[in-house]
Amino acid sequence: MTHILAIDQGTTSTRAIVFDAAPAPVAADQQEFAQHFPASGWVEHDPADLWASTAATCRAAIERAGLRAADIAAIGITNQRETTVVWDRETGQPVGRAIVWQDRRTADLCRRLKEDGAEPEVTAKTGLLLDPYFSATKIAWILDNVEGARARAEAGKLAFGTVDSWLIWNLTGGKVHATDATNASRTMLYDIRAGAWDAELCRMFRVPMSMLPEVRDSADDFGRARADLLGAEIPILGVAGDQQAATVGQACFAPGMVKSTYGTGCFALLNTGDAPVASANRLLTTIAYQLDGKPTYALEGSIFIAGAVVQWLRDGLGIIREAAQTQPLAEAADPAQNVYLVPAFTGLGAPWWDSECRGAIFGLTRGTGPAELARAALESVGYQSLDLIEAMRRDWSAEGAADTVLRVDGGMTASDWTMQFLADMLDAPVDRPRVLETTALGAAWLAGMKAGLCPDAQGFAASWSLDRRFVPSMDPERRRAKIAGWRDAVRRTLSQPR
Ligand SMILES: Nc1ncnc2c1ncn2[C@@H]1O[C@H](COP(=O)(O)OP(=O)(O)O)[C@@H](O)[C@H]1O
Ligand SMILES: O=P(O)(O)OC[C@H](O)CO
Question: What residues bind glycerol, as annotated (predicted)?
Answer without folding.
Answer: 81-82, 133, 242-243
